[in-house]
Structures are given as C-alpha cells and as structure tokens.
C-alpha cells in the first residue's frame, strides 16, 4: 500500500468516526420540551377561568418568574418588574408613584399582582391591556418605567444560554420572541394566589375573629341605611364583594369634583365621556400591606380611606350613585366603627402568600 492510499484510509476513518460521534450523541444532551402541568392551588376560591391557549406548565411558570425578576428586561439592566411589585408588599409598591430606570415617577400607583386569574375586565387602572400577557410587555416599553425595546430585550436574553435552554423546555424551541415572553410572564402571574388570610381561616372554621374584627366584618357587609342609623353599615361589599373582594368594574368613587379631575382614567381607553375618572376596582385582599391607596396613591393609611368614604365624598357627573347617596349624612360611622372596620381589613392579610417560596426570586 503506497503512502497516498494510507493517507486516504486514515482520512476516511476520521470522517466515519466524526459522523458516528454526531449520530451517537446522547439524547440527554438535547433539551426537550417539558409540558408537565403546573398544579394551581386555589384552595376554597372558585375554579379560575384560565386561558386555554396558554396552559400553565411547571417550566412556563419558572420561565415567567425568571423574566419577572430579571433586570435584563430594562434599559441598562437597572430594574426588574419585581422592583415595583415586591412580594413583601403584596406584589405592589409602597411608593405613591413608582420610579423608573431614570428615577422618573410613573403616572399611577402600582397595582398589586395576585389572584389575576379571577380578573375578567382587563388590566391596569384604566384597563388598557385586554389580557394579562398584553399587560406584561407594556411596562418594559414605557419610557417612565423600564424604558427598553422588545428587540433589545430579546437580543440580551438570546445571548444567555440559560434562557435559550429554558425557552426550549417551555416552548420546544430556543428561539426567543416577545410573544413567548408575554405568555411565560402571564403564566407566572396567574400562578400567584392569595387564599389563606385570617378571614379565609375564619370562614373555614380554623380561626376566630376578635370582637373588634367581628364588628368590623358586620359593618363591612352591612348596607348603608340613613333611615335606621343603628342598623346602617359601611356598605363596602357593594364594590368589594365576592371571594376576591372586588367587582370587576370601573368606578368613580368620589375622589374629586369634575373641575379637579387630572386623570381621566377609563375614558382614555374607551373614549367614552361616561367613563371619565373611572378606575378599576382593586381587590381588598392584603390591603393592609398594599398601601398607598387609590389610583394616584393619595391616601397613605386605611384610616384615611375610611374617612374618605365616611365624610369625604365629592360630587361629580360620573361618580357612582351608591357612593353619592351617602353624601348628605356620611356613612354614620363612629370612631369605634372606624377602628373596627380597619381591624377587619387587617384580617385579609395573607402571611402564607407574602412568604411563599414559590413566588420568590429564582436568582
């Protein structure tokens, strides 16, 4: 065998060995999609109406949590979604108006993020996001908030092998798109549930309310009745009823007169003057830790909120009539009534939710 044939044999053997290595690559090295369902623990709350086109999976919720806590989503990697929605504060912000990457104030107070699966009337104070997945992307692009482009976020995430791997586990492909980001973040936010407050335990027969809390509970659910003052309540459940203590409506609760409106609220979305100064009615779950209150954070304490409804209602053309009906007399609450009502509101705090390891940062 001459030298040329020997060289040809070795080259052929090398090619075969390389080909075999490629063909024989362990399947375990290829990241597969993992569609293991995420088990949503909603306890005694009614079954939520979850999106059928974005089924919650373990890997999807994990990816959404990674994105929620990652500062890569903002300009200069200065801020994550979680910086304005902290778990210890009910996934809200204790600042009146949150600060963005340039230390600029946002337009409205940061809404709490939990029990989103039971919200059926859009998202944000004015409802400008139809679905939770739509809401997820808007703060990223808001110049007052995270001030980043989706294209830049995708480029930054695509440069990270950890993210490419997690997108593969979630969606079956390591291609990162804004649509996939939104779906994953929707999954994580839908997984955040609060259902274990003292009041929930009371309803289940596993806790007792104090005398003051019980009086507050009665006042909360009892209707306002100026003709029988001794039987008149605070009528809170009119707007904050049901299992989630809200009514899926947009309302004007008498904060300002027409001349004082500085934020037209829902009207900005619907272009209907009848929606002027109407805002999404928020849940009262965990209300004691999600201060300040109202769309502009004008009230710092629950006592201020109670005083507003008791004696501070202002008349305007779009204010809810039930609220306006109390203007002549106020809610007739005594000082002790106010204390009792606030004490009851504290029973809606869910320490299990506030400390749940499943919702904490993965980093």
- Here the CATH topology of the largest domain equals Cytochrome Bc1 Complex, Chain D, domain 2
How many helices does DSSP assign? 13
Any idea what the CATH architecture of the largest domain is? Orthogonal Bundle
Which H/E pattern describes the elements?
A: HHHHHHHHEHEHHHH
Whole-number tally of structural domains: 2
CATH superfamily of the largest domain: Cytochrome c-like domain
End-to-end Cα distance, whole Å, is 62 Å
Which CATH first-tier class of the largest domain would you pick?
A: Mainly Alpha
Strand order of the largest sheet: 1-2
Question: Helix/strand-derived class?
Answer: mainly alpha
Share of residues in helices: 25-40%
Structure, explained:
- With 363 residues, the protein is mainly alpha-helical.
- The protein has 2 domains: 58-194, Cytochrome Bc1 Complex, Chain D, domain 2, CATH 1.10.760.10; 198-347, Cytochrome c-like domain (Cytochrome Bc1 Complex, Chain D, domain 2), CATH 1.10.760.
- 35% of the residues lie in helices and 1% in strands.
- The chain has 13 helices and 2 strands; from the N terminus they run H-H-H-H-H-H-H-H-E-H-E-H-H-H-H.
- It has helices at 3-23, 58-69, 132-141, 150-158, 161-171, 178-191, 198-203, 211-221, 267-270, 302-311, 321-324, 335-346, 351-354, and strands at residues 250-251, 279-280.
- Helix 3 (132-141) packs across helix 6 and helix 10 crosses helix 12 (335-346).
- The chain is globular.
- The model is unreliable at 18-27 (pLDDT under 50).
């Amino acid at each position: 065998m001459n030298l040329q044939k020997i060289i040809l044999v070795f080259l052929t053997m090398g090619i075969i060995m390389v080909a075999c290595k490629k063909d024989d690559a362990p399947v375990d090295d290829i990241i597969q999609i993992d569609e293991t369902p995420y088990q949503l623990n909603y306890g005694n709350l009614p079954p939520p109406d979850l999106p059928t086109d974005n089924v919650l999976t373990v890997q999807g919720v994990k990816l959404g949590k990674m994105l929620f806590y990652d500062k890569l989503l903002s300009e200069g990697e200065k801020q994550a979604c979680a910086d304005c929605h902290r778990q210890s504060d009910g996934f809200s912000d204790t600042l009146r108006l949150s600060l963005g990457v340039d230390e600029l104030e946002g337009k409205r107070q940061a809404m709490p993020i939990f029990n989103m699966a039971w919200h059926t009337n859009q998202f944000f104070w004015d409802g400008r996001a139809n679905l939770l997945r739509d809401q997820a992307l808007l703060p990223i692009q808001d110049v007052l908030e995270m001030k980043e482009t989706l294209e830049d976020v995708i480029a930054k995430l695509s440069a990270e092998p950890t993210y490419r791997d997690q997108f593969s586990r979630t969606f079956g492909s390591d291609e990162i798109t804004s649509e996939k980001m939104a779906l994953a973040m929707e999954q994580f936010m839908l997984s955040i549930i609060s259902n274990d407050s003292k009041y929930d335990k009371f309803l289940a027969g596993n806790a007792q309310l104090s005398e003051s809390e019980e009086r507050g509970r009665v006042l909360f659910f009892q209707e306002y009745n100026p003709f029988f003052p001794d039987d008149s309540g605070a009528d809170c459940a009119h707007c904050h009823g049901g299992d989630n203590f809200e009514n899926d409506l947009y309302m004007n609760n008498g904060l300002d007169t027409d001349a004082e409106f500085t934020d037209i609220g829902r009207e900005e979305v619907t272009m209907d003057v009848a929606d002027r100064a109407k805002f999404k009615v928020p849940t009262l779950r965990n209300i004691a830790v999600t201060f300040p209150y109202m769309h502009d954070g004008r009230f710092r304490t629950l006592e201020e909120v109670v005083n507003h409804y008791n004696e501070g209602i202002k008349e305007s053309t779009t204010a809810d009539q039930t609220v306006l009906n109390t203007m002549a007399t106020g809610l007739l609450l005594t000082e002790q009534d106010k204390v009792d009502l606030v004490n009851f509101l504290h029973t809606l705090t869910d320490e299990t939710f506030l400390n749940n390891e499943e919702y904490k940062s993965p980093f």
